[in-house]
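User: For my dataset I need records formatted as: sequence, then structure tokens, nothing else. Please produce one.
Assistant:
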Amino acid sequence: MSTAYKPSDAGYLDEGDLRDEMTRVFDICHGCRLCFNLCPSFPSMLGFIDSRDGNVGAMTTAEQDQVVDECYQCKLCYLKCPYVPPHEWQLDFPRLMMRAKAVRKANGLPVEQRLTDQVMNRTDLVGRMSSAMAPLVDKLIGTPGSVTRRAMQAVTGMASERMLPPYSKERFTTWFRRRRAEHAGYLKADPPQASVTVFPTCFIEYMEPAIGKDLVRVYEHNHVACSLPAGTRCCGAPWLHSGDVEHFMKSARRNVEALVHEVRAGSDIVVAQPTCAYVVRHDYPLYLGTRDAEDVAAHTFDPAEYLMRLHRGEGTSIDTEFPAVASGSVPTEVTYHLACHLRAQSIGFKSRDLLKLAGIKADMVQQCSGIDGTWGYRARNYEMALKVAGPLMREVEKAGNEVVCGDCHLANGAILEQTGKRPLHPMQLVARAYGIEEDGTA
């Protein structure tokens, strides 16, 4: 039985071995069907097999490839599948799909796809350039369907109709370092109860520094010292999900080297983007296979998860007075989107719990946004992504709350695009609940 899901495994890039493993896994999926409604991959796979009276081996290579192309790595099948490791059948559908993309890349991709991958995967390069030229870049590419965006689609393969997140002129790390002297003075006057290192990843660093700012302010309000790691870059998820294991491993090694230094110094790691947190917690240990990667994963937390850990811990606490909620300036009921990659971490509903502690009722919606990394930004997937996201948008509209919040920056962008409601990150809502204004004043 082949279970070559790591690059170090013998036969990982052997296409014949891959096809045999796909047949084995698809046969198990066909007999189980618990994931029939999770993503487009499963209906396509089951339809191909059913049309051949259950003969899995009769699927063509093109049909297998379609199943691969329709997987956007939401990871939700981990929550339903009864056969994931350590089960003897060793079924790991998401990593099988990533292996298939790695084999495809090793065999040579079309020029158009190689260009698309390079543009979408080099998030730090694009982020640095775009931040330096913001808001000019936002004016040029910020209007879906514009001439500029149609030209971008022709060259890069990025969907012209997809709303793109704007870039910030001031990067998060620039803001953080500019106020470090004030931050240090605060800590000297009021010793912290814990220390964390904020791994901003590309979303907060280049696009939404406001989330990082509110995270830091909320943590400092609760006597948690915040620092930045030195030398980290994008978590590498775009490389991994497109099958470029070499670039992913390079990103993973660099980030683990920087983050493990923080862990050894006594800090925990906080990551505010669920996809990035999932990669650090689950993919780094699997693909690197090092003690350092395991230690970093063990000390990595979602922001709300960490605060609830302090709230329920021995000798630690958080402030449970939320004056802005009591005064009515912050709503007592919101719509909360539980992101796929947060659900896949199996940590519970920590943002919901934190909002409840603040006196805010969170009406949860758990449907997928159809973005999942770069998948929903690609022109070839755009129409399918809209169909995937349809149930989420209907539930957001049905909930009818004025305020929507969610942990995933990508999903929040899709919600804004399709409903007109601009979601907040839970840390932003908690900051407002404490009475912390957007400029940082209380």
